[in-house]
Amino acid sequence: MIRIDSVTKRYPDGTVAVDRLSLDIPDRSITVLVGPSGCGKTTTLRMINRMVEPSEGTITLDGVDIMKQPVNTLRRSMGYVIQNAGLFQHRTIVDNIATVPRMLGWGKDKARARARELMERVGLDAALAKRYPYQLSGGQQQRVGVARALAADPPVLLMDEPFSAVDPIVRKGLQDELLWIQAELGKTIVFVTHDIDEAVKLGTMVAVMRTGGHLAQFAPPAELLTDPADAFVEDFLGADRGIRRLSFFPSVGLELLTAPIIAVDATAEQIAARDTTDAPYLLVTDLDGKPLGWAEPGELTAGEIRQDQLLSYGRPFIAGTDSLRAALDCAVLSPTGWAVAVDGEGRAAGVVSQQTIGEAIRGAHAERRADGEAGTKADGKTEKAAR
Amino acid sequence: MNVLNYIDAFFSDSAHWQGYDGIPTRVAEHIQYTLEALAIAAAVGLPVGLLTGHTGRGGNTLALIATAGRALPSFGLMVLMFVLLGLGLAPVMIPLVVLAIPPILVTTYEAMRSVAPAPVDAARGMGMAETEILFRVELPVALPLILSGLRSAAIQIVSTATIAAYVSFGGLGRYIVDGLYQRDYEKVVGGATLVAALALVTLGVFWAAGRLSVSRGVRRA
Ligand SMILES: Nc1ncnc2c1ncn2[C@@H]1O[C@H](COP(=O)(O)OP(=O)(O)OP(=O)(O)O)[C@@H](O)[C@H]1O
Ligand SMILES: [Mg+2]
Predict the structure, then answer these.
(1) Are B198 and B27 spatial neighbours (Cβ–Cβ below 8 Å)?
(2) How far, in whole angstroms, is CA A306 from its chain's centroid?
(3) N or C: chain B end with fewer CB closer than 10 Å?
(4) How far is it, in rounded angstroms, from Cα A87 to Cα B126?
(5) B218 at the A interface (CB within 8 A)?
(6) Nearest to A387 by CA among A324, A338, A313, A337
(7) Is A56 helix (H, G, I), strand (E, B) or coil?
């Protein structure tokens, strides 16, 4: 565990970047430092690998004061990833990644083999190994930065806004990759960002900092969204905190209707039988059970159902796996107001109305409240539904 | 008679190709002065430039020294040294070295300063020692600029080394000084042509050195 104990950083010009900050960073999880520009996130992160020396207070790593070991030994035990990656432009990709193993005295072949292994792990095509950094896109460079930090298999990874310079789609890919790497390798990651969505998505624990280097709140993301400590945190979380919180509610309990689903080759009797269900529309699927679109029962003639008759069904959610946020989003986007649930293979698993989703949300809230009163909420292990 | 005729006459005279005043001897002497002066200037300018550039300290002092160095007239300095030190190679070498240090020093400093800060930060953060950062992270990236500093120093030495002849040393300046004295313009033009050719060769040598020593990732080609 990394323990930051009432640490203050005063720069030579008098700026107090971090003010008596105390933070226990748990092992094998992602701790995100988030806050507005200039609130001391980078300073805090860089004090952990002694790129910045604290003015007061102590930082311990597994109980040992970080000031008590040689600085370069400490740094080699921590991967460090910065914005824009900071790759060595005169070295090929594979040699960039092999840097720390080479510093630790590994042979060239062994270090390169390790580098190639990491390229695969972070999703880089092996064909890029012999290229130079300028021949890579920003997103690819960032992946190389992550691979380089992981190369010597350090237990700790320090990341300072690693994904902020890439476009949103690439960023999402990098975030997913990081979550996957974390699940796989169990690193202790300290991640700095000023993007609250990124913090909520990646963090096991999120430390919200405010200007002047104060800690405003330290909590798991679901708790942050439920119970912001004060107006500053609430404001920082933004307007749609309620909607975003739904990411943490699984769609498992959602009651799905299967009656309004018919196949494209349905007979007249089948169509007529479905007409009696509660749903005002029928969901037509292809012969594999994959959704095609919505139609009003009266418009359908057996044997003559054509794609152009059907209303688009928007974006389906994966039953059980996706969160209530995804389900609600589907219902809101669907022209009929009904969301389509699919299984892992994309076959229609059922349909659900906005109203039912709304009831599920109210139910989930009530459950959380009851849990909170029972005192089981604060264990920091709120389960995260896939978002 | 035009310049081309002078050149033609100078180079086709077989007497100019042999003996202690022959072209091979004079060219060899000239190259020797150049290499010696360049080596001494680099031995001073490179370490100081690399170190000040790496730490970022001493830039102002450096600029001051460089300006002072540039302001000293080479010929005057040589005469002064000749008066002070008497006959010898030192009065020739000192002005050449003084001439070459500023471009090497200043360009090396600037080259090191111009290295992007992010890779250096990353290197330090991964636990690289400062000397390793200097030689393995900054130098390879700063190399093209550093070479250009050495190149302009070398070119300046090649053209200025002609002054050695004024204090009875050899080199290509011999032809120019003697030619002027003897009113043998063929010799003057021949000497000047050789100096120009040597300067071009110097450019070629540095181009080749750049191709060999600068990483493709830095050259971006
Ligand atoms: N070397 C320095 N000398 C003086 N003041 C500094 C130094 N580095 C940072 N600061 C100041 O300390 C405060 C915190 O800076 P820091 O870089 O930690 O912020 P940050 O939260 O990472 O901001 P951003 O999101 O913009 O990166 C700022 O007011 C900054 O101006
Ligand atoms: Mg920062």
Answers:
(1) yes
(2) 40
(3) C
(4) 12
(5) yes
(6) A324
(7) strand
Query: Is any Cβ of chain A less than 8 angstroms from the Cβ of B124?
Result: yes
Angle at CA of residue A224, ends A223 and A229, nearest 5°:
110
Residues near A199 by beta carbon (within 8 Å), at least 6 away in sequence: A32, A34, A191, A193, A206, A208, A221
Q: What angle do CA A207, A212, A217 make, to 5 degrees?
A: 25
B3-215 has CATH 3.40.50.720 classification: no
What is d(CA A39, CA A42) in angstroms, rounded to the nearest whole number?
9
Domain ranges in chain A?
Answer: 2-248, 261-359
**Does B65 contact A at CB distance below 8 Å?**
no
Chain A nearest-CA residue for B139: A90
What CATH number is given for A261-359 in this structure? 3.10.580.10
Residue B119 structure tokens? 């890779």
Q: For A147-179, how does the pLDDT look when each residue is reduced to its tens digit (9 = 90+)?
A: 999 999 999 999 999 998 889 999 999 999 999
Contact present, B25 and B199 (Cβ < 8 Å) = no
- The 3-state secondary structure of A194-247, one letter per residue: CCHHHHHHHCCEEEEEECCCEEEEEECHHHHHHCCCCHHHHHHHCCCHHHHHHH
Going by CA atoms, what residue is nearest to atom 31 of ligand 1? A38
Q: What are phi and psi for residue B33, nearest 5 degrees?
A: -60, -45
Query: B10-59: per-residue pLDDT in tens?
Result: 999 888 898 888 999 999 999 999 999 999 999 999 999 999 999 998 88
Q: Where are the beta strands (DSSP E) in A84-164?
A: 156-160
Global confidence as pTM: 0.85
Q: What is the pLDDT of residue A253?
A: 85
A82 lines ligand 1 (CB under 6 A): no
Cβ atoms of residues A151 and A114 within 8 Å:
yes
Determine the pLDDT at residue A277.
Answer: 61
Specify burial of residue B58 (Cβ count, 10 A radius: 0-12, 13-18, 19+). Answer: middle
Cβ distance A66 to A54 under 8 Å?
Answer: no
Reading across the β-sheet that carries A348-353, which strands appear in turn?
A317-318, A338-342, A348-353
Least Cα distance to B109 among B133, B142, B153, B86 occurs for B142
CATH number of A2-248: 3.40.50.300
Q: Answer yes or no: do A92 and B121 touch at CB < 8 A.
A: no
